[in-house]
Amino acid sequence: MANSTKYLLKLTSLVKFIGYWVWYILALVILIITQFPDWVSKYYSNGFFKWLGLCLRKLTSFFPNAIGEFVYLFIIIMLIINIIRSLFKYKHQYKQNRNYKLILKSIFKKGLKYLVQLYVLFMLIWGLNYQQSSPAKPFGLEVKETYNDVAIEQLTLDLIEELNATRTQIADSSIEKLTIKQIFTTAIKEYAQMEPAYPFLKLQQPNLKLSRFPAIGDYIGFMAYYQPLTGEAIIRGDVPVLTLPFTTCHEMAHQLGYASEMEANFIAFVVGSETHEPIFKYSMLLQLFTYAQSAELTFIAKTGNFENWKKVVARNKNLLSPAVLADRKKIKLFFLERQDLLIPASTTMYNQFLQWNKQANGIESYNDVLLWALAYRAK
Predict the structure, then answer these.
(1) Do both 87 and 192 map to the same domain?
(2) Residue 99 DSSP code
(3) Are residues 101 and 216 in the same domain?
(4) Are residues 209 and 350 in the same domain?
């Protein structure tokens, strides 16, 4: 009996030892894998993740509401509870032995283990998509590393012309009657129409949900997001309706495994460029023009010529049709009314998160879509 007990204790100790170090081994393996983007694309993004994402989308499609928000809420509540419990536990330990060094060592050891576990789970469920190779090859594009002021100015002028032309095809009444359901249905149809030309954009079981708590977006700064734990694309329904077609296509790109914000923007740009739906094209043009004009004015700002800056702003405004200006004004007002609600720390944290995941420009990486748009339009 004593021998069997001793054997069980040794076995239990061995299992705990293996269980502890297996997370660190997995983390090391993942770090090595990230050095091979083509391998990540082939076996993870276009292999394991597609299977996982499809399973999650099918599972959560049975729920009419976005359960991903409640999952996050549950995680936050459990995190708070565990932190409070740990504080009481360490307080009790300190009262018993007064050895704060031992307590700090325990906190560090457990904290490191939890961080490693979080890293491994995040990378396996979603994060490795940030490490995949560039989609330039499947699209047959040669994307330059930078753009110059001449190219951006020409792009801005071209977009103004296209905005004006596309807006004439859209009646004000059709914008007023446009519903979220119509946008979701059309977005799914537009992706399906892209398949013959770009089979790698095939999205099975798209899962689009409206946010149940859109007001939270005012504080942490989101219009939509992909929930990797549920496979849902969760989108705010209270934003200006003309922003939604582009935003929806962007989130669907995330469901395909395009984790980079720039790449998701590019996929949404391609869908908007190839569509026969004027509102979807117009939504894309509005977003791309915002990026292009911002880049154009940044070039001028670097020269310190404020008079030229004002002239370009006035020129662009005069070239845009009254209908386009009115649409842009509505969108701008929506965000201006909420800009004081945004928690600064949330922007800093998200910027850091993007930089950690191979998006060196952080939040500014959204604008990098201009490089891809120029390459695509040139082709």
Answers:
(1) no
(2) -
(3) no
(4) yes
Which of 252, 238, 233 is CA-nearest to residue 61? 233
Q: Are residues 125 and 158 in the same domain?
A: no
Sign of the C-alpha dihedral, residues 111, 112, 114, 115?
Answer: positive
Of 369, 170, 198, the residue nearest 287 (C-alpha): 369
Q: Reduced to 3 states, what is the DSSP secondary structure of residue 234?
A: strand
Structure tokens at 241: 């309706």
Per-residue confidence band for 361, with pLDDT thresholds at 50, 70 and 90: low
pLDDT at 265 over 80: yes
Q: Give yes or no: residues 40 and 178 share one domain.
A: no
For residues 53 and 255, the answer to whether their CB atoms sit within 8 Å is: yes
State the burial class of residue 191 (Cβ atoms within 10 Å of its Cβ: 0-12, 13-18, 19+).
buried
The reported pTM is 0.89
Cα separation, 258 vs 308, in Å, equals 38
Tell me how far the alpha carbon of residue 114 is from its chain's centroid: 24
- Which residue range forms the structural domain that includes residue 122? 2-131
Give pLDDT tens digits for 105-134.
Answer: 877 888 888 899 999 999 999 999 999 998
235: left (phi over 0), alpha (psi -120 to 50) or beta: beta
What is the predicted pLDDT for the residue at 95? 73
Residue 142 and residue 116 in one domain: no
Instruction: Classify residue 228 by burial, with Cβ atoms within 10 Å: 0-12, 13-18, 19+.
Output: buried
Q: Could you read off the pLDDT of 91-109 as tens digits, one per residue?
A: 777 677 766 777 778 778 8
Q: Cα angle vertex 151, ends 145, 154, to 5°? A: 150
Strand partners, 235: 210, 224
Q: How confident is the model at residue 183 (pLDDT cuts 50, 70, 90)?
A: very high
